[in-house]
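In the design runs reported in the main text, the only information available to the sequence generator was the tokenized backbone. The following block is the verbatim input for one such run; it is reproduced so that readers can re-run the procedure and compare outputs position by position.
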């Protein structure tokens, strides 16, 4: 079973011998937020995940998977509507691939291709709006 974000934070913090206060200092996140994250209350944006990863000295992908990053990046770039669209895209992909005979690597490749197509379409749409086409 995959570890939760809270478990990952606690584990990494302990591995590095950090207190919650020290992690707060290293990450630039207030102590209360660190306590919330370790209790299972998730950050609401990529900025906080990036700060956490930096404070823990880990790659972002060690805290959240590519699909979660995709949704949060969509929110960061395109607001809540973009996040909703990205979340639906991920969910539809999950349903489409359920029970299939593809290995995990092939599923990851397909997911990445769909996410890349999403970014291209969003940027193309944004360019059209800006140019008045």
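Verbatim output:
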């Amino acid at each position: 079973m995959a570890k939760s974000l809270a478990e990952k934070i606690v584990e990494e913090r302990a591995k590095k011998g950090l207190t919650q206060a020290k992690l707060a200092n290293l990450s630039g996140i207030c102590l209360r937020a660190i306590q919330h994250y370790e209790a299972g209350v998730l950050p609401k944006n990529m900025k906080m995940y990036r700060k956490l990863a930096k404070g823990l000295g880990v790659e972002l992908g060690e805290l959240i998977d590519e699909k979660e990053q995709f949704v949060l990046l969509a929110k960061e770039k395109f607001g809540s509507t973009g996040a909703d669209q990205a979340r639906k895209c991920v969910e539809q992909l999950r349903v489409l691939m359920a029970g299939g005979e593809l290995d995990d690597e092939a599923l990851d490749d397909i997911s990445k291709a769909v996410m890349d197509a999403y970014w291209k379409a969003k940027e193309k749409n944004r360019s059209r709006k800006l140019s008045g086409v």
